[in-house]
Design goal:
Length: 292
């Protein structure tokens, strides 16, 4: 109980739960659209944006670093689009190229900054690789809350159009829905959440916060609205549990604890959910028995 009432736990839990709830819902759209790996590439590509923003202002200011991450996330996506549209490189190849190139650039810039006496206060930039939610501040929570509210508001405003676009792009175009605009909206809210979530779970683990809740939601339901809700709630639950484990335990990082909790929920759902292995196996046996 002492952990639950501590100021540090409240701040970290609030930030991670809000991020995971919004990330789970937005990530579900990307997964259903078959663009989950784009989120992975963009997540890695945002890291050099953080380092460049630090190099320009000289201090680790939350909002400026997030802006740098957003900018490089957009550049990464546009690079992916350019490669796939103007070359014979497949989407998988473009994602691999952008992910490795941008993340390599970030690591190179990081090495340069840390070894340069002209830059001071570089401690903590490495946290954006693997995440360090334990050092979240009120300003980080405010930023995450603002980004999450904006993303969920946009999702709610274009809910019907996005749903139609995901399940039937041809009908969507026929119905007068701008598919390019829908794709841009999905991209914007995804990059926004990735950028503000880097400090919590890091560039490497952020994609799990987008994909795993979506998988859980789809295993438990086929209704789009219910899948979104389950994804958001499962993400928030994993964030709360992971934050509690890392706060109550010793030498347990918050980001990995959240991801491991989320992965455990996904594994349980994979076996026990209505669309899971056990339920499907029972259904097949019953159908086989009835046929015989």
């Amino acid at each position: 109980m002492e952990v639950l009432t501590s100021f540090t736990f409240i701040i970290v839990a609030a930030g991670t739960m809000i991020l995971a709830f919004a990330g789970g819902m937005v990530g579900t759209i990307s997964v259903m659209k078959g663009q989950s790996l784009i989120g992975d590439a963009v997540g890695h590509a945002t890291f050099p944006g953080i380092v460049v923003a630090f190099m320009l202002i000289g201090v680790k200011e939350t909002y400026t670093l997030a802006l740098g991450a957003v900018l490089f996330g957009v550049i990464a996506f546009l690079t992916i689009q350019m490669i796939t549209n103007h070359s014979k490189v497949t989407l998988d190849g473009a994602l691999a190229l952008v992910l490795s190139s941008f993340f390599g650039l970030g690591m190179a810039l990081m090495s340069f900054v840390q070894g340069n006496p002209d830059f001071e206060g570089t401690q903590g930039l490495n946290d954006y690789i693997f995440g360090q939610a334990a050092y979240m501040l009120r300003s980080d929570v405010y930023l995450i809350t603002a980004a999450s509210v904006i993303s969920l508001f946009i999702l709610a405003a274009f809910y019907t159009q996005i749903r139609i676009y995901i399940f039937d792009p041809v009908f969507s175009r026929t119905a007068g829905i701008n598919n390019t605009l829908m794709n841009f909206i999905i991209l914007v809210i995804t990059i926004l959440l990735i950028s503000v979530g880097l400090k919590a779970v890091g560039a490497i683990l952020i994609v799990n916060l987008l994909i795993a809740p979506a998988v859980i939601g789809q295993l438990w339901s086929s209704r789009f609205s219910i899948v979104l809700l389950i994804a958001g709630v499962s993400g928030a639950f994993a964030a709360f549990t992971g934050t509690y484990i890392s706060t109550a335990g010793e030498n347990i990082a918050t980001g990995p604890a959240i991801i491991l909790t989320l992965s455990l929920l996904m594994a349980l759902s994979l076996f026990c959910a209505p669309k899971g292995i056990i339920r499907r196996s029972i259904y097949k046996r019953r159908m086989g028995g009835g046929a015989s």
